[in-house]
Amino acid sequence: MYGLLSATFFAVIQVVIYIGAIAILMIFAIMLTRRVKQEVGSTVNKGWWLAGVMSLVLFTALVLMFSTWSGFRTTLPEMPADVDTIKVLGTALVSPNAYVLPFEIASVLLLAALIGAIVVASEKKS
Amino acid sequence: MISLSYFLVFAAALFCIGLYGVLARKNAIAILMGIELMLNAVVINLIAFWRFRTPEMIAGQAFAVIVFAVAAAEVAVGLALFIAVYRRRNTIAADEIDLLKW
What we know:
The complex is a heterodimer.
Chain A: H1 8-32, H2 48-68, H3 85-94, H4 100-121
Chain B: H1 4-24, H2 28-53, H3 59-89
Helix pairs in contact in B: 1-2, 2-3
């Protein structure tokens, strides 16, 4: 999908993040909490059909709404020539008059989240 | 030629599958995966609108990068919470974690 949108950076980063990091985290969490599986009978709630109906209704509503919008059939515009998207993105993320502040805040947020995760998940030595 | 509609419909489908997962599944990790699907749908929408509307500006991609970072942080914290809950309560079924309910 990202490749089609000529966002090559995202095509790569998606694979790296989801296979490299999040899948590993998920596997660890599932292994650590696996023993529940045996005694739980059903894996879904009592109202699962309601959830399914709601999701389907939302999907139909979204598609119907989109189809009434005039820009729905916009075809792919030409990418501006001689622009290296990855280069522009990299420069924009660290240049002071573009997005350096959100970038730094995201970094700090990630660091805080990781430290918080370690603190929450670590065992109390008592 | 590919039009914007493909991306919008695909993202809507992804979002609704994630929504179903969040609402219907009991396992807390499955709920987290559903949230991930919904966030991915949002990112695909962001990138699609960037590509179709303002391909000469980079704001859409920068925004999507930040969304990715926030998603990763959210997953890390969520999984840590589930591990802590499992250690205390010996379950991660969302309907059995009822400490706040009486």
